[in-house]
Amino acid sequence: MPELGVDAYRVLSAVQGKADGAIVTNAGYYDFAANWVLSLGRIRAASRATGLPLWVSSPSPGTTADAEQRLFEVYALGARAFVEWPQTLRMAGNPVERNFSLLQWYPPECDVALLYPSTSQALRPGQPAPRLFYRGATDLRDYADFDVLEESAVASGALARYRVAVLYEGTVWTPEALNELYRWVQSGGVVVAYDFGKMATPDGDTTVYQELFGFASSLGRAEPTERWVGSLPPAYRVVLPGGLDKEVLLGFWGAASSEGRGAYDGAQLRLPIQEAADTIVALRFGPIQSAATMTVLAGEQQVASVSLTPGLKRFQFTIPATAISRNTLEMTLQLEGNAPVPITTIEVRPASQPDAEVTELSGRYDAPIRTEDVRAWSRRVGNGLAIFFPGRRQLWKEYSSVVRHAIYRLSAIEEGRKDAPLLDDRADGVYVVKAGPIVAALNGTSEEQSVTVGPGRSVPVPAGQARLIWTGEPETQILVQAEDFAGESFRVQASPDGIPFDRPNVVRVEAGEKFEVRLEVPKPGRYRLFLRTFRGGQLYPVEVTLSDGTTLPPPQVQQDGFTYRIGDFALEQGTLTLTVQAEREFLFDFVALTDNMRIAGYRVRTSSNPSNGTGS
Q: What is the pLDDT of residues 248-300, one digit of tens each?
């Protein structure tokens, strides 16, 4: 898996032209933002760069929430195929059934790339992911869609499809990647960075960094703007999992479960504090499976340590005021062993009030940055733009605001620049991806949220669900039953192989007879035409003559299909007449006409409304 150090771009490049596709098996492996940053974002970027299609499956059916996330990840990845577990498909109201009419493939539309510091990460053995990158990217994913571009992909010219490139860390890069980044900016790209250190080659050459960000030395330091927005009582609790997970959890946490959140080595807690004073923190645990040691760091200072044994329910320790910065307490959990430690609740109290009653914390962190400040921090580089936030890693939330300006409001930073569609840019726990005329949304919260999919159009997304939303022109789907045109000259009869099931449903057409049906084409355009005619329960293709006199011979068909395609036609608005005939008698069921050129056929729906056909 990519989070274990595999270069996704190199893997897919190695089989380019030799394989039909790449199979992704870790859908739903972590919560979505973590899964995207650790692996899926890199896999999608590699797929787009190499042109190798993706097929998606998962190692287990998991929970209902896992099924919702999997379907969203299929769309986020731009996967061509999806293998879902039968038990999931049998669940009432499962996400596949609920979104069935929009299960159509369109490529994801994303022009933002986060540059993965592959060379720097290779110098940190034992660290599963670059921590500054992981922290910033998981936070950003709630606001915007992005690819994660490997350094090898950058060096190969893959930046060409992107509008904005974002840097979170990496002081050592290959010369090829740095030179390609510089060429891309020169030709019109926009690169965003902050003061994480100078980018250099393994030999220490910082020429490209100086060309891009040399102006940074003349900028004044950015001031912190981060604050907690919402209710902040002096003593509070945070229940895991819950709506505050994305605000207070950073680093390496496992998926949500009934036993809390599993903390791995490097899991981080970020807690707002009303007043910078000595603070008591208590962690409540779910069932601990194996003995381990937990060490708690506040900044670089070790503040507590405990031996975790099965049966341990609670661990309490005190954080000194000196370890609290800007009314925020940041802790890192160091854990021995590979098993996650389930944490169910975090309690915070002032040390001066150790018995204070805790209440629920609510709200979120925000660190607003003005557009005019971002404009002042930008410089032209050739035809491109370099944006440098003059702040260090402690101001990472402020940097996230700068990046969001570059994604959504770039035209306000430099006139004439393109902005991303404003589908998201809200800290609401809803993830969004645009794929052609479809917007896919995943609501990871316990409350209904909404997604803005166009001017004045807001669409609700139920709690915990994935929803596919059509934003294009309304599709044309016309189904005409043959029996509606039988008159008195043709026999209408009931057949178990026809639809609908509750009345006579097919027309018997004798050998050599001609039978006409008429369809009203609502607007000019390109359409795809399907027929269902059969003998003895199997498809039987017939000759079709169109209004303009064009005669189409019976096509070759697959006998396991429910319909067969006559062809694709440019049609004008008005009446389309079809005349059908064959050398042997046959039963005529219906004609289907659609302007959705991705529909390959129709099948009968046997669930709640068996009389309706469904495109596939």
A: 988 788 877 888 999 988 899 999 999 889 999 999 999 998 888 999 999 88
610 pLDDT higher than 50: no
Write the CB contacts of 411 (distance below 8 Å, at least 6 apart in sequence): 417, 418, 419
- Using CA atoms, how far apart are residues 104 and 477, in angstroms rounded to an integer? 15
Q: What is the DSSP string of 365-382?
A: EE----HHHHHHTEEEET
Distances in whole angstroms, Cα of residue 138 to Cα of each of 246, 249, 473:
8, 10, 33
Amino acid sitting at position 548: D
290-299, 329-338, 451-460, 576-585: range with highest mean pLDDT: 576-585
C-beta contacts of 596-599 below 8 A and 24+ residues apart: 596/104, 596/475, 596/476, 596/477, 596/528, 597/526, 597/528, 597/568, 598/104, 598/105, 599/104, 599/528
CATH for the 477-615 domain, from 3.40.50.1820, 2.60.120.260, 3.30.420.40, 3.90.1150.10:
2.60.120.260
Do residues 364 and 229 make contact, with C-beta atoms less than 8 angstroms apart?
yes
Which two structure tokens, joined as six digits, stand for 263? Answer: 């903390």
Domain 112-224+367-419, CATH among 3.20.20.150, 3.50.50.60, 1.10.3720.10, 3.40.50.880: 3.40.50.880
Q: Which residues pair with 81 in a beta bridge?
A: 55
Structure tokens at 76: 């986020």
**Cα 515 → chain centroid:** 49
Distance, CA of 590 to CA of 479 (rounded, Å): 7
Spatial contact of 413 and 375, defined as CB atoms under 8 Å apart: yes
How many C-beta neighbours within 10 Å does residue 277 have?
14
Q: How far is CA 243 from CA 125, 142, 360, 402, 463, in A?
A: 34, 13, 11, 25, 11
3-state secondary structure of 433: strand
* pLDDT value of residue 608: 36
What is the spatial distance between Cα 524 and Cα 382, in angstroms, rounded to a whole number? Answer: 45
- Which residues in 60-204 belong to E strands, given as ranges? 81-82, 112-115, 147-149, 164-166, 190-194
Q: Measured between alpha carbons, how far is residue 189 from residues 112, 113, 321, 427, 508 in Å?
A: 10, 11, 44, 27, 64
The dotted CATH code for 228-364 is 2.60.120.260
Given a contact cutoff of 8 angstroms between Cβ atoms, the answer to whether 569 and 526 are in contact is yes
Q: Mean pLDDT across the chain, nearest whole number?
A: 92
